Inverse folding.
């Protein structure tokens, strides 16, 4: 099964909370709102800040706020900030890291699939993710996503 790890899932939840609030929020308040442990929230916020997705301010009036509008942050941005480069397999991300690569019959097709998945995640913004489900429509059709990957 292909799925996001828990930390990417939690990061998306935190980003959605920030998108909904629209103002500076403390790590403690985010942890309470998302029902996550504060150390986990602090770790994720540090990674999201390093990736340029959130801005952090220290001090008594400090906290976290989105670095740019929710419609300018994709789900792929969030996943990459937490997990690093996207790929179904190691060879999809880093060529030359597999001893089977020179004779593997499927590595180039796995790269195509990885590109299609990343493209699909780039087509869904944080604003889309935060919207009520009935209002969401994909920006790109599945057929178009697969066409781009080819």
């Amino acid at each position: 099964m292909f799925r996001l790890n828990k930390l990417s899932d939690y990061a998306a939840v935190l980003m959605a909370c920030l998108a909904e609030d629209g103002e500076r929020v403390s790590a403690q308040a985010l942890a309470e709102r998302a029902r996550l442990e504060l150390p986990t929230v602090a770790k994720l916020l540090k990674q999201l800040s390093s990736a340029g997705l959130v801005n952090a301010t220290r001090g008594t009036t400090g906290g976290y706020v989105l670095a740019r509008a929710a419609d300018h942050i994709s789900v792929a941005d969030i996943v990459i900030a937490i997990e690093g480069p996207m790929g179904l397999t190691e060879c999809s991300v880093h060529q030359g890291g597999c001893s089977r690569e020179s004779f593997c019959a499927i590595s180039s097709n796995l790269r195509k699939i990885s590109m299609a998945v990343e493209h699909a995640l780039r087509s869904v913004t944080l604003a889309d993710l935060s919207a009520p489900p009935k209002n969401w429509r994909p920006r790109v059709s599945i057929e178009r996503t697969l066409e781009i990957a080819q």
Remarks:
- The chain has a mean pLDDT of 85.
- The helical segments are 6-21, 27-34, 38-50, 75-83, 90-93, 107-122, 126-130, 142-149.
- The chain has one domain: 6-149.
